[in-house]
Fold this sequence. Notes:
Shape: elongated
Strand content: 15-25%
Order of helices and strands: EHHEHEHEHEHEHHEHHHE
Number of strands: 8
Largest sheet: 8 strands, mixed
Oligomer: single chain
Helix content: 40-55%
Structural class: alpha/beta
Low-confidence stretches: none
Strand order of the largest sheet: 7-5-6-4-1-2-3-8
Mean pLDDT: 87
Bound molecules: uridine-5'-diphosphate, magnesium ion
Amino acid sequence: xxxxxxxxxxxxxxxxxxxxxxxxxxxxxxxxxxxxxxxxxxxxxxxxxxxxxxxxxxxxxxxxxxxxxxxxxxxxxxxxxxxxxxxxxxxxxxxxxxxxxxxxxxxxxxxxxxxxxxxxxxxxxxxxxxxxxxxxxxxxxxxxxxxxxxxxxxxxxxxxxxxxxxxxxxxxxxxxxxxxxxxxxxxxxxxxxxxxxxxxxxxxxxxxxxxxxxxxxxxxxxxxxxxxxxxxxxxxxxxxxxxxxxxxxxxxxxxxxxxxxxxxxxxxxxxxxxxxxxxxxxxxxxxxxxxxxxxxxxxxxxxxxxxxx
Length: 309
Ligand code: UDP
Ligand code: MG
């Protein structure tokens, strides 16, 4: 028998924890048929509700339930890392606690691994039940990333992914502090099979991702997997130099032919404002990368554990 670790990051999911357990266990026979034993690893990301108590209840019934509980909310990326680091399975799968990642796909996913893939990932083909503005920006983000990043980041990819131990170890070897998991999966490579499914709505509770949080997250993603914005500063610099040069030529020629009645104060102000605006913008971009580098060189731990079993 091989061991399959199921990692479930939970942040205030008290209502979903027991349902998830039931739903997962329904697939146990099908997995056992394929020679898989289950290990369930909940990662509590500093929940403030009864999530930990619910997990403890499960543990009393089932020895295979494990918990890593953080000292505070470190974010889902940290929870995924902790899950991978504490997993013991020959295979590892990550799933949301809200049953948006249907456990019923697991046996099918595992079959693909047996065909020689290192990883089976899922993507949702529809964004049903999501605000249209959010879908629009999500699409824009993926399109932009495709252009500016060398790492492949799949549109609509979920974090629901089954991997071999080899791939898990590869991901764990990336110790970066600013973790953008979608990019990390693409970066490590390996042979990945994609499974598509319709979006499932969250079982209970609210999504933890506000539009603003997602927006900031996408900026993090861009910073983490592309340096194209840094190029932007150089490109704009060159562009403005060319424009300035053309204007100088134009003014000299005009002076020589028509003489020079002094005017042009408003246009001067506009130009100064615009150029300084561009300068601040570029400084902001530089600042972003500098800030990331600053956080990275501090080498802080990715997460801190308060309790585990
Ligand atoms: N989550 C987490 N830490 C956080 C936010 C979310 O561990 O800071 C977990 C959450 O409990 C859930 C999963 O990440 O299991 C996905 O979160 P959510 O369902 O809110 O995101 P969505 O599915 O809407 O993208
Ligand atoms: Mg969800």
